[in-house]
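**Paired protein data**
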Amino acid sequence: MTQTIPIPLLNADSLTFPSIDTALKDPNGLLAFGGDLTTDRLISAYKHGIFPWFSDGEPIMWWSPEPRAIIYCKEITINKTLKKILRKNQFSVTVNRAFEDVIGLCADAPFRKEGTWIVNSMIDAYKTMHKKGFAHSIEVWMDGILVGGLYGIAINGYFSGESMFYKRSNASKIALVYLADLLQSQNIELIDCQMQNPFLADMGSLEISRDKFNQLKNISLAKDLPQDFWLARQLYLSND
């Protein structure tokens, strides 16, 4: 007989989440549902390694998967093809120059065959997070046209990647390389990738235990960054 396990409903008047140790194994990491997407609740979630993920017509669902996918910034994989592309300097890369364009293109990415989880309520919430200094984008440009990028949430030195897009081959890979380089400039150890996929694995993503992830996350959360770290500007690789 199959046992039904109830999923906690978040209290609208409280930002408290259930212990991440109570997250389901199947579906992997489902922790709770309900609540809202206010900046305060989202910050509370990310500080605990929890993120929202749901589709149109579904309640807000909150996740803390086991294992967790991360990229160690120093160990990001740059294959021969990508090295050649980086050396050619065909692309320019910026930070926080076009956040709204990036999140919109991530939501409508043509390579995403399944329905997007970046629904309108998520877009609105992350735009607000961006205005408050917690959501950031990396943009990749070619001849003045936005051809790739990514966005994610940053709290102090902790960065949780949300989504990426490309219109030119390798453009999203370039965005990830520049993000890793930017974070590494402040000795930030990792990028939280949340869930493993083949693209991330090709870029060097590893799966680690939830406990190990939380240890590393907490170290990143404790790291203060310079005030101008996320200032909108052009980026250059540190080894250029």
